[in-house]
Amino acid sequence: MILALFLLTGARDPILVPEISQHEVQVRQGFTGAQLLLFGAILNPEGTRAGRDYDIVVVLKGPTQSIVLREKSRVAGMWINADSNEFRSAPGFFAVASSRPIKQIVDDKTAAIYELGLPWLQLSPIGSIDPGEQTRFAAGLVDLMSRQGLYKQDQNGVQVHEQVLYQARISLPSNVPTGTYTAETFAVARGRVVTSAISRVEVRKLGFERVVADFSQEHAFLYGLLAVAISVAMGWAAGRLTRLG
Q: What are phi and psi of 213, to 5 degrees?
């Protein structure tokens, strides 16, 4: 009886076979961005065509980081820092592509559990904060990152062909942070996530950019002094050129 029940309930859930056009993105001098093709197949457990209508949602998430968001207020004609909030684990990059608008695929609770879009991105504030303030700062962070091209959502960005093959294209901007990215694909049927699969992408700096990045992390104090010295030298040189002209 238990075996028969398993065959009736779980055996028909599909499996996803995901792939990415490139598993490593190299950031070199003059890097202008990259485009990733995320594709794959929806199959029955035995490897045959699933033969059922599924919606596909792809979530590409970059390395998490702690972000301090400061709100500016105008006082006596000047803009000054007012309230601030720090988020413990905000992704440095977050993009969602789906075969249909998310609200037509799942309810808000399911969307929040799997973070299937910018409105349901789970940001962890540090310390106690009023829920209204948290919502306002979270919306401000999403807006800021969206304007930088680091957060995005395409609600018709996944094409599904004959309920077997799917594909989505997600662009990485030139200011994309380095680190390990996870690309999680979800198959959804009747408002329920029936299966998911994860692939990974490495974004690495190479050449001179990598040397500078490594130096700034390993020798932060010296890097700061060097940056100040270069700025002073450039300012002095600009002043000399102006006087000579």
A: -65, -45
Lowest mean pLDDT among 31-40, 134-143, 203-212: 203-212
Which among 39, 52, 19 has a CA at the least distance from the CA of 194? 52
Enter the DSSP assignment of 103: G
d(CA 106, CA 85): 31
Edge to edge, the sheet with strand 158-161 lists 15-20, 34-43, 165-172, 158-161
CA distance 73 to 206: 40
Query: Domain for residue 159, yes or no?
Result: yes
Single pTM value for the model: 0.75
Residues 188 and 212 occupy one common structural domain: no
Same domain, 23 and 36: yes
Q: What is the count of structural domains for the chain?
A: 2
Say if CB 186 and CB 57 are below 8 A apart: yes
Per the structure block, which two tokens stand in for 135?
Answer: 């919502």
- As a whole number, mean pLDDT of residues 34-54 equals 84
Of 39-43, 91-95, 205-209, 234-238, give the lowest mean pLDDT range.
234-238
Residue 108 covered by a domain: yes
Enumerate residues 6+ apart whose C-beta is below 8 A from 171.
33, 34, 35, 36, 149, 152
